[in-house]
Amino acid sequence: MLNAKIPDGPLEKKWEDYKGHVKLVNPANKRKLEVIIIGTGLAGASAAASLGELGYKVKAFCFQDSPRRAHSIAAQGGINAAKNYQNDGDSVFRLFYDTIKGGDYRAREGNVHRLAEVSTNIIDQCVAQGVPFAREYGGLLSNRSFGGTQVQRTFYAAGQTGQQLLIGAYQALERQVALGNVKMYTRHEMLEIVMVEGKARGIIARNLVTGELERHAGHAVLICSGGYGNVFYLSTNAMGSNVTAAWKAHRKGAHFANPCFTQIHPTCIPVTGEHQSKLTLMSESLRNDGRIWVPKKKGDDRRADQIPEDERDYYLERRYPAFGNLVPRDVASRAAKERCDAGYGVGTSKQAVYLDYADAILRYGRIEAGKRNLSGTSDAQIIAMGKEVVKEKYGNLFDMYEKITGENPYEVPMRIYPAVHYTMGGLWVDYELMTAIPGLYALGEANFSDHGANRLGASALMQGLADGYFVIPYTIGNYLAEEIRSGALTTNQPAFDEAEKSVRERLETLMSIKGTETVETMHKRLGKIMWDKCGMARNKQGLTEAIEEIRQLRKEFWSNIRIPGKINDFNPELDKAGRVADFIELGELMCIDALNREESCGGHFREEHQTEDGEALRHDDQYMYVAAWKSVGTHEWQLEKEPLDYEVVKPSQRSYK
Asked: Of 187, 402, 594, 631, which is most buried, counting CB atoms within 10 Å of its CB?
């Protein structure tokens, strides 16, 4: 049985009691212990900075040329924290409850409550680092709403919150680099975990500039490499984002949990053509003020400004009056798909809905006129003032939309459609963030632990920084306290020889195939299978077909791929090939997991399991567990279940009406 190691005692006391009884490592011993960190986004950078500050010897690896290029930089809308600055009823419990409910009752209570508790510390930490959060006129930090909540708890820095938070973490990381506590390895990719006597003891990494394989030993290894959304090819993720680090850990014995739980973000710029390689996210914060609608008439080809108000269907406000446009992402995404599938979509592709700011511009303009004590203000002046307010809040997002589409969203509604964004599944970890492999940890989006079947907006940044700044510094000591007797580690041992040999053989095999298909073509084919049959909606027939198609694609990949260049050289196509090979294996497991989970919950929507009005229908009596899959061979996985026990929150049919 998987042991989640949830501390005993009342929910609100678990983390405090854990910290009070956890094993400690004295400062002199910390200097003798080495920690390897894979990935330097928010989770990795904050963990490296924190562990370096504590005195551990840290090696941090990223495949980019700088930690500042991590995909965390792309997060736009904000970061949640239960500060209750708006005095609107927020609390640690309310954030905990919203997160459990938003995840459709498929997350652990203990982990989620800890996340809500430390959320308040994150904001203080980031303000101290100089993160330029938006502020009210009087200087207090500003908040806005996000989907799945009825309070304003999201702190933000215009539409570039991820960038500002990453710069804060990066500064803390670079300080430790300068002090010699952290050694940074850029343009390096981890290609294998090295196990010694059942424990993670190091990695094999490839220098992406020279092509050389390198050995690195450590007393613990932290996987902070983000999510696997690029298995769909088209996603909002950076094109380099991949599953390789997590997948190598999985193949070594770490369980992969809930892989089918994929988040489809409702607010993305629609696909424009066959040759597109990436999708662009428009922040969910835009749903805070924007209204989403489609024409009431099927196939209406009129411009948005020619459609009268009474001929518009504000379908989220109609279907979910309590939350309106602020329903969670899974609900908003499926609703948009349903309208488009029914023939009410807009734009040339008819696979889009409108996100309209006209009402918000008028509302803010009137407020501004009142603040300035202006009477007899014309509509044009009110609109102009409203646009200025919207520009201050969302200006860079509006500019980005205009650059991509050529349309001015201040004048015409944006067109949006759901797209793959975040993955709630990941490496199974216990309360201490350790995987099933002793000494191997997973942080941030690389693990499965905090979001259940659907992540609420602005919670990804919260979890990444919580894990790195406030959780792992405590929990890793509980393991490393016993490792001080291990002494200095060496890479000159058989386990490293075997690991390096297997990596080299895999690379040589890829280079020797000399087929006709490009890596990009194979990736695109995989993405189409995944989106069509394991995307926003899944069914038994489609998933069964997808599994066979992916297995066939895997055979074709390993017999007909063509990679130019040399093995011991700068070769991005070879790097990409290894990542796509891992995506193909992951895609098969995702479909197996989706087929096994015969219920609908959060981002996993099985068409056979829905209510009369098209909402997700859970089966708590059969599926209230974490599906943790252990790799036991090619095309073979063993399912181990971690039961989910709810002591405080009582699961109910999720409703936002």
From this structure: 594
